[in-house]
Design a protein that fits this description.
Helices cover 41% and strands 19% of the residues. The protein is of the alpha+beta class. The strands form 2 sheets. Strands 2-1-5-4-3-8-9 form a 7-stranded mixed sheet. Strand 1 (53-56) and strand 2 (61-63) form a beta hairpin. Keywords: Copper, Disulfide bond, Metal-binding.
């Protein structure tokens, strides 16, 4: 009986390892970015991203097809954010510079979650300070929420006594989007991921695009 149990357990282990081996090799064989991925997305990468219509920092109405025509690193935040957003956006700008040194052109994109205060003019001043190529996008409340939902981000306004001074709760991820592939990977905030590491991970995708 003990031997039979041991044999059955060994067979089960072989089956599990075989399945894991098939999963890993199968994923990499069918996914050109398999070796680069360090995160998993429920529903797959196709579940994130999609069409949007927003207003650029120059005041023009633009679509995703018009502004994401090159590799882009997208962040959802707001310019009145006291700490997280400027830190993350600055990290992204530094990562873009590091990628440029390797020969990769990546556009940093900052999409506001606070269109009430983040006008095109405010965004332009904010993005120009961080990086000359950073693109700021705003829009109506409906347009911003639709873009946020497409990328499965979260934000909510904190109500306070002064209607002009308030904070926003929000997720803090950056999204790498490639023209021919759409969304391919997300990266955590600057407190958990430095610019050098982000650049290394992004370069893996760019090399295989």
């Amino acid at each position: 009986m003990a031997r039979a149990t041991a044999v059955a357990a060994f067979a089960a282990l072989v089956a599990v390892l075989g399945g894991l081996w098939w999963f890993i090799l199968g994923r990499e064989a069918g996914d050109p970015f398999g070796p680069c991925r360090t995160s998993q997305v429920a529903g797959g990468t196709a579940a994130i991203g999609g069409p949007f219509e927003l207003v650029s920092e120059t005041g023009e109405t633009v679509t995703d097809a018009e502004v994401l025509d090159e590799p882009s690193l997208i962040y959802f935040g707001y310019t009145f954010c006291p700490d997280v957003c400027p830190t993350d956006a600055a990290r992204n700008a530094e990562a873009v510079e590091l990628l440029a040194e390797r020969g990769f052109d990546v556009q940093p994109v900052f999409i506001t979650i606070d269109p009430e205060r983040d006008t095109p003019e405010v965004l332009a001043e904010f993005t120009d300070y961080l990086h000359p190529d950073m693109l700021g996008l705003t829009g109506s409340a409906e347009q911003v929420r639709a873009a946020s939902q497409a990328y499965r981000t979260y934000f909510a306004k904190r109500e306070g006594d002064d209607p002009d001074y308030y904070l926003m709760d929000h997720s803090a991820f950056s999204y790498l989007v490639l023209p021919e592939h759409g969304f391919v990977e997300f990266f955590r905030g600057a407190q958990g991921l430095e610019a050098e590491t982000l650049a290394d991970r992004a370069a893996c995708f760019l090399e295989r695009a």
